[in-house]
Amino acid sequence: MKKVLIVETNVTHYQGTTEPTGLWLGEAAEFVAEMKNAGIEVDFVSPKGGFVPLDPRSMKYIDESILEIYEDPDFIHSGLTDTLRPDQVNPADYAAIYYTGGHGVMWDFPDDLSIQNLASAIYDNNGYLVSVCHGVAGLLNIKDKSGNYLIEGKNITGFTTTEEIIAGKKSVVPFLNQVAVEKRGGHFKKKRFYREYAIKDDRMITGQNPFSVRAVAKLLIAELI
Question: What CA dihedral angle connects 197, 144, 24 and 171, to 10 degrees?
Fold first, then answer.
C-alpha cells in the first residue's frame, strides 16, 4: 500500500505581529493516530523542510491519543523537527496528500509551487487531495493541466468565517476560506461552528475545523483500504 504525505507549516507567527502560531497539533496527531491504527504509513513535508512550530493554543486541546503521538520519538523527529523538503519527496510513493492546519498555513501553503506540484502529481496518479480546517489553503491554487482550479465545481469545507470571528482572528488573517474557495469556483459547505464535519467529493476530502480530523481520516481510510 502507498503512503500518505502530510503537509505542515513552517510559519512561526501571524504576519505583521509577534503572536505565535504554527501547526495545530491535533490536526497532525489525530490523523497520524488514525492512519497508524489502519496500518497506513505516513511521511511529513513542509515548504522549507525541517522545523515545524506548534500553535501554542492547540496545546490546550490535548487528550491521551494526541499526547501518545506527540511523545512518539518518530513523530517528534520526522513530524516536528526534521520534516522533508518538497525536493526530497517522490509523489509516486503516495496515495494521498493531507494538508494540516493552524493559522500559519495561510501564509506558506497557498503559493508554494513545489508542494502544489507534488499534490498535482499525486492527484493525477488517481490519488486523493485531503485537508482539514485552515489546511484548505493548500488546495486553493492547485490547477489542472488546462489551467483550471482543481477545486472548481467541487464541494469543499474549511475553517469558516464564523469560526474565524469566534477565534478572534478575522482581522489578522490574509483571507477568509469561504471567500477564497468561492472565488475559485468551489462550493463551500459548512455546518455549525466547532462541530465535526467532513465531506468527500470525488477524490477530494475536506474537514471544517480541528474537531473534524478523525472524520476526514476515516473517509480517506475507507478509500485506501
Answer: -90
Residue 218 has a pLDDT of 98
- CA dist., res. 94 & res. 37, Å (int): 18
- Residue 139 CA to residue 149 CA, distance in Å, equals 9
Which neighbouring-strand residues pair with 133?
none
Structure confidence by residue, pLDDT tens digits, 179-202: 999 999 999 999 999 999 999 999
Give the three-state DSSP class for 57. Answer: helix
- In angstroms, the Cα distances linking 167 to 18, 103, 160, 224 are 17, 11, 10, 34
| The dihedral sign for the CA sequence 164, 168, 171, 173 | negative
| Cα–Cα distance for residue pair 148/68, rounded to 1 Å | 41
Report the number of secondary-structure helices (H) and strands (E) in the chain: 8, 8
Of 176, 185, 218, residue with least CA distance to 200: 218
Residue 187's SS3 state is strand
